[in-house]
Structure formats: structure tokens, C-alpha cells
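[agent] plan:
  1. take the single chain provided in the ticket
  2. run structure prediction with default settings
  3. attach C-alpha cells to the ticket
  4. add a short note for the reviewer (M.T.)
[agent] executing step 1
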Amino acid sequence: MSVVASTLDPSGSFVLSSAARWFLHSGIQESDGGVARYYLAEPGRNARVSTEITSYAISTHLYLHRLTADAAHLQAARHAGEFLAQAWDEQSSTMPFELPARLAFFFDTGIVARGLLRLWRTTGDERFRQRAERCAESMLRDFRSGREIHPILELPAKSPALRDARWSRQPGCYQLKAALAWLELGEATGRAEYRLVYDDAVRAALESHHDFLAGEGEGERAMDRLHAYLYFLEGLLPKAREHRRAFEEAIHSAAACLRRTRSILERSDACAQLLRLRLLAGIPVDEAAAEEEAAWCASYQDASDDPRRQGGFWFGSRPSGRLPFINPVSTAFCAQALAWWHQRRRGAAPPLDWHDVI
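[agent] step 2 finished; step 3 output follows
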């Protein structure tokens, strides 16, 4: 296992400041503003740039800018926003998954829209709101078929891609996190139809979520499906109090799945997602379980001398050892979860709501 940050840091300052440095200085953000899916430690290079991951990086930089007032984070967020504005595929009128544009994902398009909206709210630059709204319109126009949402379209024809057993190539409750883009556009524009279509997505997700989590049975793929199931719960956060019983039962099921599966495969982002949900849902927090999940998250932060790795969070581990790549999403989710947890332990937790979740 690599050298990792101390899980006992009482303030969480090391975790957050080193994660911030990693986002700014590791090279995970390319010169054109796009952000790579992950850093491959063994060959020492970035994976391909992704529009979804670039948007997560925007949200992360804006979160860090709010905490630190470091203008470098705002600059990095704007640079990523400019990349996404240019990535929009005019021929297909949608947001591609990667460049060149061959596929578009409903989930990724929603995450892009939400990142651009955050950037608009921070900067006031209308270009970002307009591009976010075009993403949301594409989600409505191109991906929906009745109540079902096609997960992937092939470009430029925008025909539904062939599905297989992988959760990411099937419709499902996890798409609710992307549907938050509709709710946020409704807030930003006052257009009631966006809120209504989000409400419809909530109803569909609540009808199907029990079957989704059980869809892989046991084994490594159950951990990947848990990660997606936690996206469903993040998408349900605006309705957590309204559906409190369902939310509490889902948290319990997710926590049991994590503990049952982590000896086979553990994902750091899933640990962080569960911890953030505990702190945000407005339900009683299982302090012992949250402490355990915080320790698991913290164990994945690299504290080596390698500037491409230091402060980033490793994706996960198997019994044979750590998975050899550092992931921007893992870093963002874990750093935010640990920051909130440290604040809670110190009795200094600020008011949080679902808009705060990266």
C-alpha cells in the first residue's frame, strides 16, 4: 500500500489542501482545460479526457475556491468550462462523452450541465448557463422514450446504442443524479417543465431502485453497482425528507453492501458517497459507521513525493493490492466527504444542502 495521509488529522487541513494542490498541479487537467479520467501510475500518464470528469473538476475547483479564496481554482474552473463549451457537438446538438464525438451519455450530459450551471452562478457568464440549458434540452429531446431514458446514443445519428449487462449501458435509478440538472435549470430559469420532468424521474427511480442494487448479486461488480446506486440517492437528496423511510432503508442497504463487498473490491468513491449522504440526508447519523467510512476514505490519499500523485486519491483496492490509478472523482468525493466529517467532529459543520454535493 502507498504512503497515505493520516486518518487522525483533527482538522482535515492536510486532506483538503493536498487534494487542492493535486487538482491544480498534478497535470490531471490538460493544457486545453479538459480533465483526464484518471492518472495511470505505472506508465505515468493520463487516461483520455472526459467531458463528465471535466465537469466534476469544475465543481471541485469551485468548492475549493469557496473554501480557500485561491483565484487559481476559479481560473482552472473557467478553463475547464471553456473546454466544455468548445466540446459541444454542433452537428448532433449534444454533448459528447469524449472527443472525437462518437457517443453521448445521458448521465454525463447531466453532470456537464450541472458543472456549467455552477460556473455560471459563480462567474455570471451567461455562456455557461446557455450551454447548460442546451445540454438539458438534449437530455429531454434525445434520450427519453416515454418514461425510459436511453443511457447511450451513438453519434451523429443519435440512435440508442446496443445495451449489455453493464449498469452504465442500461437505464436505471442511477440516472437520477443527472436528472438534477433539470431541477437546477428549473431553479435558474423559472421553467416549470424542468421541475416536472425531474419529479417524473424521481417516481421512476423509486419504483426500480430495489431491483437495481441487487442486479449483480455478489462479487466485484456488486461494488461498481453500489457506486451507481449511491448516485440514485444523491439524485434523491432534494426529496430525502419527503421520502425519508425509503431513504433510510436505502442507506442501510448500501452500507451493508459496502461492508459485504469491500473485502473483494473496494472503491474509495463509494465510501465517500455513502459518508456524504449520511451527513446530508437529514436523518440520524450512525456515528460509528461514518467514522469507519471516513477512515476508509482517508486511507486512499497518496502522500508520496511524486507530484503527479501526491494528494490524489487512489481509485480502490483488491486483496492483491491497490488499483494503480488515481482518480479525479475519487479525489473530489473523498476530499469533500472528509472535510465535512472533520467539520462535524469539531462541531463546526456549516449548513449543507444537496446543491453542495460535487
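[agent] step 4 note for reviewer: The chain has a mean pLDDT of 93.
[agent] ticket updated
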